[in-house]
Amino acid sequence: MLAPGSGSPAASAESESGPREDAQAQAGDETPRGDATVSAPEVNGAEPKPAPESSSASRTTVVRGKTPPPPESPERRDPTGAITVIDAREHAGEARDTAELLAGSVGLSVQDSGGYGQSKSLVVRGAAANGVLVFLDGIPLNGAGGMADLSQIPAALVERFEVLRGGAGARYGSGGLGGAVNIITRAPGSHLRASGEVTYGSWDTMLGHVAATGPLLEGQALLLVHAGRSDGDFAYDVDELPAIDDNPLTSQVRARNDARGGGGLLRYRRRLSGGSRLDALAELSLENRAIPGTVQNPQSSGRQELGRLSLGLRWSGLLGDVGQGSARGFFRRDGLEVRGELPGAGGAQRYSVGGVELEGRRALGDMQSLTVTVATSGEGVTEAQDAQSASWWRASVMAMDELRFLGGRLNVVPSLRVERVGPYWLLAPKLGTSVSLGRGFGVRANVGQSHRAPSFLELYIRQGTLLPNPGLKPERALYADAAVSWSSAARTEEEPVWSVTAGGFGALYENLIAYELYPPLLARPYNFDAARVWGMELEGEAHPLPWLSASASYTWLRTQNRYGDPRFFNMDLPYRPRQKWVGRVRAGPDWLNARTEVLYQSSQLVNRTGSRSLPSRTMLSAGASSTFLHGPDVTLSVEVKNLLDVRAYDFTGFPLPGRAVYATLAVAVDRDASSAAVPSASEEPHASPH
């Protein structure tokens, strides 16, 4: 998402989104803690008018005091959307990468090339990876090819994820066919704290980071440096004669699957006069990885060098008596170079994007508020090989009206974005509604339209054997979803918390872009694909005791290819498993706790004709952590992934790692907050309620 910013259970942990923590401090931070993944319908079904004290029990609900939610919090960016908040801090010590943290969320599946540092992307509600927007504190991460690679975002940077499932065009622009994900980085603190973590495990994998935060230049700063490496030479099973039934599998070792990388994060925050705030971010990522290829087409040479520099600056605060506002500027520079005897290798590619966004929100009486966003950006890509280059400009205007009826229990939220992306005009309307039925029950529903403009690579840049097509049209999605939710009320952290959400969704994708063979060895993209997608999402979580939590989610996804060719018509789309189930239990106090998680994913096709598929898989993980020393805090964690040693494949035939064991040691030295030189977030001036 484009920098939503609430949903964290910790009142002291400020997010990139804006002044949320003061409301939590005033309300006593009664948001209950527990497992990491929760659904936002509890937010939408709860009382929409801010109460003078805590307003709901769900961990995703902002505990509202006298300050309204920040302009980019999930319930403000999309008040009726299907939103999941994943708190990465509650997975501390689990030796998981960014993709693994997201994989357990309902409605999402990960396309994994296997092992540390190898490419990983998201499929949300059946939309391809290039139809899912990914942001880092509001900075767009989708590259020139339209896809964001999660392997380039180390988990050490992440405080939490905010996931919007369903069309995101109205609020977040071109590319949001299936949804949007905002990755919220770790926030600076108001008192001195230093921490470090090192992980070592299977296949000579080593990960580590050090971080320091505290007051600086009348504000707060955070510096984090990270690095990692892995040989990635795990064993996998292969059928060397797939045409023969019952052919025995042979075990091989994945070769040339190594990766190494590192980078850093610098954040600075300062309170300004009048209660406004200035946030600055600089992030650098460097990675070098081998290109092993698939099992059917292994590569004996070839490496990728990847780099990213992200810069962001944001002001947020009150606009006098007019309302709330924010202004953001960002810049990102990506580098990609492929070396070795591979098609398209030898040319360095550079992609740059930068822009500004202005947003204002004004209350029109007690039961209505209007939000307007104006954004503009420019982007360009250059390919050293053949001296290719392309650039364009985009601009958009978005308006969202929030209407509240029946004493605030019924919300009706129409929104509309008009966008110009290069040569394309795009229109993304949306109508959402949410109803609080009382006794913890709520209902929400949405209907709308989203688009994805063709990427630079699809339009202008030749990539090896892939030819561009400047005549492509934007992809389009017509979507609808609805859900009912129930959550129990909790007034203290010791009181049990229960929540259940059940919903359905559907989408029609038109003008989908797919590649067609262009003899003898080339391929070119065309708009000749269409698809229908529908499904069901179920979520539940329980916190019966302060030291015990459990959660489960189930996704059923049905896809149909609507292209007229009889070879493909009504077939499932490739790489879209029909079912996914995730269950998780965590028990124990901080000094010794244990956890277990099981993830089941059904079989999935790997081509449009249905002649090849990948089998279903069940992944079981278990771990334990102990904070056995305080002052400094020292925590030792052990994690066993894929406990049953399942030999599985993903995406176009990439084997996944088998059983792996990791040990993590974390140390934190925390100075007493009372000795800090700057005021905490809870001391900033109060704002007027809605």
TrEMBL record:
Membrane-topology descriptor: Multi-pass membrane protein
Domain TonB-dependent receptor-like beta-barrel, residue spans: 315-643
Domain of life where this protein originates: Bacteria
Region: Disordered, residue numbers: 1-81
Residue ranges constituting the TonB-dependent receptor plug domain according to the UniProt record: 77-180
Transmembrane domains' residue ranges: none
UniProt entry keywords in alphabetical sequence: Cell outer membrane, Membrane, Receptor, Signal, TonB box, Transmembrane, Transmembrane beta strand, Transport
Compartment(s) where it occurs, according to its Swiss-Prot or TrEMBL record: Cell outer membrane
Ranges of compositional bias, category Low complexity: 1-16, 46-58
Protein family membership: Belongs to the TonB-dependent receptor family.
Protein name: TonB-dependent receptor
Organism of origin: Pyxidicoccus parkwayensis
